[in-house]
Amino acid sequence: MRTPFIAGNWKMYKTVADAVKYVKELRGLVKDLDAVEVVLAPTFTALFAAAEAARNSNVGIAAQDLHWEREGAFTGEISGQMIREAGATYAIVGHSERRSLFGETDASVNRKVAAAFAAGLCPIACIGETLDQRERNETFDVLDRQITQGLDGLTAEQIGQLVIAYEPVWAIGTGRNATPAQASEAHGHIRSRLRQWFGQEPAELCHVIYGGSVKPENARELLSQPDVDGALVGGASLDVRSFLQIVASARRDEAL
Ligand code: PGA
Questions:
Q1: Is the whole model's pTM more than 0.85, yes or no?
Q2: Is the Cβ atom of 9 under 6 angstroms away from ligand 1?
Q3: Does residue 256 fall inside a structural domain?
Q4: Model confidence pLDDT, tens digit, residues 183-218
Q5: N or C, which end of the chain is more exposed by having fewer CB within 10 Å?
């Protein structure tokens, strides 16, 4: 059974002070929780302080991106080793904002996923179709391409450790979430491809989480779909109480 996985992607929000305050509050609120994996992705500048504030708690810390080289003349970039040293244990890779605004491709995603594993970070690899692609009935083709090219060369063991975030681009930051049926269909497709291409066991272990306008009001229904193993939450993760409600919705037993 895959433990539900809820990650908050803060994007370019929150100062170091804001991040530390939030983490301290959240760690207290989830201290007795072991049925849900909870992860926060602050900005690079807040990574170290957030990881210190989360030390020995149930809250994991993720970077929002990484570079694929260990070190070198790459002005403005941060390597997986540096992120690991700062105390993070996850890295988001290939978020649609990185793809559409900063020229990220399936090839760069592939290098970054491999670099994350090499640095001892668990990648949260983002995939998902645009509205145009959905309307042209290309959703499954796009997902197939993003999986085959983005995850090329990974071992079965790495697939088993990976988190894949299915994030339809049209649902991100728009307030328009995928319907539970749409999410369920896409997640089922992703799982069947993982089975086909990497084998039964890694496909069962891999977390496939949903992202795109997840809110306290829609989280429970989305998270109860088969093959939806959690959520990547943007806007609604900025407020600790609303994020906590989403975390609580992921529990398979009682409410927090
Ligand atoms: P949103 O963002 O929840 O604000 O739609 C999700 C994401 O970008 O991961």
A1: yes
A2: yes
A3: no
A4: 999 999 999 999 999 999 999 999 999 999 999 999
A5: N
